[in-house]
Amino acid sequence: xxxxxxxxxxxxxxxxxxxxxxxxxxxxxxxxxxxxxxxxxxxxxxxxxxxxxxxxxxxxxxxxxxxxxxxxxxxxxxxxxxxxxxxxxxxxxxxxxxxxxxxxxxxxxxxxxxxxxxxxxxxxxxxxxxxxxxxxxxxxxxxxxxxxxxxxxxxxxxxxxxxxxxxxxxxxxxxxxx
Length: 178
Fold this sequence. Notes:
Elements: H1 7-27, H2 30-34, E1 37-45, E2 48-51, H3 53-63, E3 71-82, E4 85-96, E5 103-117, E6 120-130
Parallel strand pairs: 1-6
Antiparallel strand pairs: 1-2, 3-4, 4-5, 5-6
């Protein structure tokens, strides 16, 4: 049975891509993570945009070194098909190890546009919006007693207030690649 004959198949493939995003991030599998995006795919987070595989690779290597990794938990994905594209909104939390117990570092929503490529669905665009500030207690696998390591949360990186909760679609016109 082809995907077009079974509507759930498209959703299953989209949910798999969304799940792989968290798993590849948490395991440091950067090559597979970048492969979840189209060649011109973009990721928007904390007021910054990363477009294309080269920029995405540089971003994820900087954002997720081994001592900052944890668990990205994604739930409640709402999928709407618009032509050959899918718009998806999901909730997430990011949990990392802390000194005494795990720490919920951040939570928010992902706003996605995915497009079919061969047997998969890939991100054409993903935006992360936070519903509050990030954690302000020390967390991560290495403590922060080394003065050469700047804690991730010490860097001012938040979605501008005027953009929170205002996602109204892609920042650019998206047309499926052929």
